[in-house]
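Take a look at the protein record below and flag anything odd:
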Amino acid sequence: MRLEEAKRIIEETLPTKRYIHTLGVVETAVQLARRYGVQEEKVALAAMLHDYAKYRNVSEMQTIAVELGLNHLLKYEDELLHAPVGAELVKRELGVEDVEIYQAIANHTTGAPGMPLLDQIIFVADAIEPNRRYPGVDQLRQIAQENLTQAVIATLGQTITFLCKKQTVIFPLTIETYNAFITEKRKGTVL
C-alpha cells in the first residue's frame, strides 16, 4: 500500500480531529526516522495507519481480540483494543502484510519490551505530535530529539503517572515495557 492511498483511506475513516492528529504523528514519526536512521516510507505508513480501528465498534473489536487469542485485553479499558485489532484490520482489510508495520501499530498504545526502532518511533510520535497539549509534552519532545530510548522511557513514565492519577487499572505490558527499557538502559545495552 502506498502512503497516498493510506492517507485517503484514513481521511475517510477518521473524524477530522483524529485525522489531524494522525497527520501530526506522520510528520513527527518521519522526522524521528530521519534522526534515528529508520526507513521513512515504512515509518510514514505505520504512522498513517496507527489509529485505523480507533473508532470501530467496541463489540467488533472485542470479537476480533478473542479471535486473535487476546481475551486478556477484555479485562482492561476498551481503549487498548484499537492497537492490536487495528493492526489485524490493516492486514485483513487493507492488505498490508508487512510484519514490522503490523507490530508497530499493535504496540503503539502499550509498548512492548524490546521494541525495535520503528515501534519506538510510532509509540513516541503518537505521544508528542504537534497537536498534543498536556503538561510535560514539550519536555518529551526535547528528549525525543536527544535520545529515543530515553523518550520511550519518559513517555511510558508519563502514561503510567497519568493512569495512576486517574486511578485506572494499568495494563501489565505497559509496566513490563517500562521495566524492560529501564533494565536495558542500566545494562548499557541501549543508549
Observations:
- The chain has a mean pLDDT of 96.
